[in-house]
Amino acid sequence: MDSKETVLDVLKKEGAPLSAGQIAEKSGLERKDVDKAMKQLKDEGAILSPKRCYWEPKA
């Protein structure tokens, strides 16, 4: 599983908006890898931000 899939999986399992630091902690990935994956997911429209610095999967 690549980092994008891991990040998306963590967000879906949690069911609440998470910050990048929380995602890194829960997934075991390094923060830089989470940031890179989140940028790609954001550009693809797979995640959205309901409030500043917190992310959730797009419904």
From TrEMBL:
The name this protein goes by in its record: MarR family transcriptional regulator
Which organism is this entry from? Chlorobium luteolum (strain DSM 273 / BCRC 81028 / 2530)
